[in-house]
Inverse folding.
């Protein structure tokens, strides 16, 4: 969030930001409830799949376009190259930001596709062990780098040496952890998709994912996050989550341990209820962050919890 605040501090009062609609809950809260009031920035939240519509929302005050792909928790995939080209065709100086936390730099490199700034919550896959809080930004433009560096120093949102040490330790195994989590995720998504107690599974690696082709084109893998809709509403979801033994009921994601949560009452509880409904974040939606435990253990635990849901 300090890295996010660093980017926002590039802007001036009355500037306009276009943001993808199902953005990370904390980013949404910061934009809607902090920046709008204290910095007099204006925000529009919208779906980015139609680039003509996106272009029509850009005005002379628009300075920043903020996207995330896949999104959280509905795992909607957006074409980074198409969005970057569309925005820059209107004005070159509009900064396109991609929050790349879900994919990690191992699987997806938005700068290559035309984005201007890439943000990572290092807390997630890069750290990888749920023991670091940190963020980072990547740019490929020297003057933008200098502006961000100046703001970072001026605001003081910097990591401590110990956090940097922990992040470097985590980074050394990023590729090993990611490969394992992804393999587990594919097996779990496939299992869930065939299960009678599941309404629907969303995983970019499944052929049934509506943007499977875009995901395949712009990333070298599909990540370790799965979303699914369980039958039986909030009660079904609650029973399932309470019955898990190996999976931990918790927010956060991207670590070696597998986590499960219910966004409607946890990570996305601060998103207004009508907005949640619009985005499809229903009470029976469960989000999994797949870790690197043995696949048989992960599946056995899910099977048991489903039998009790
Ligand atoms: C967790 C997360 C953040 C915020 O990161 P912190 O390290 O918790 O400040 C931002 N974006 C996404 C997609 C995240 O998952």
């Amino acid at each position: 969030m300090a890295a996010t605040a660093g980017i926002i501090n590039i802007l001036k009062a009355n500037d306009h930001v276009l943001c993808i609609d199902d953005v990370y809950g904390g980013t949404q809260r910061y934009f809607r409830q902090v920046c709008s009031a204290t910095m007099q920035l204006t925000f529009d939240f919208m779906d980015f799949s139609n680039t003509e519509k996106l272009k029509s929302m850009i005005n002379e005050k628009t300075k920043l376009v903020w996207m995330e792909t896949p999104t959280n928790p509905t795992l909607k995939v957006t074409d980074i190259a198409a969005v970057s080209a569309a925005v820059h065709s209107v004005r070159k100086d509009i900064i396109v930001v991609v929050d790349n936390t879900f994919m990690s730099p191992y699987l997806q490199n938005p700068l290559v596709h035309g984005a201007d700034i890439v943000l990572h919550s290092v807390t997630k896959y890069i750290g990888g062990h749920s023991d670091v809080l940190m963020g980072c930004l990547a740019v490929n433009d020297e003057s933008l780098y200098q502006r961000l560096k100046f703001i970072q120093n001026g605001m003081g949102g910097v990591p401590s040496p110990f956090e940097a040490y922990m992040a470097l330790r985590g980074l050394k195994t990023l590729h090993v952890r990611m490969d394992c989590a992804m393999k587990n995720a594919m097996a779990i998504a496939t299992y869930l998709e065939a299960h009678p107690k599941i309404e629907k599974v969303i995983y970019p690696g499944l052929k049934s994912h509506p943007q499977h082709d875009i995901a395949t084109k712009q990333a070298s893998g599909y990540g370790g996050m799965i979303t699914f809709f369980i039958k039986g509403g909030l009660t079904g979801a609650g029973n399932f989550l309470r019955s898990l033994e190996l999976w931990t009921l918790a927010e956060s994601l991207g670590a070696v341990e597998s986590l499960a949560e219910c966004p409607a009452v946890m990570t996305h509880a601060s998103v207004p209820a009508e907005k949640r409904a619009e985005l499809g974040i229903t009470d029976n939606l469960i989000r999994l962050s797949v870790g690197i435990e043995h696949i048989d253990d992960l599946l056995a635990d899910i099977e048991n919890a489903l039998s009790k849901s």
Remarks:
- The longest strand covers residues 62-68.
- Residues 1, 24, 26-27, 68, 72, 99, 101-102, 121, 123-124, 133, 135 surround pyridoxal-5'-phosphate (CB under 6 Å).
- DSSP finds twelve helices and eleven strands in the chain.
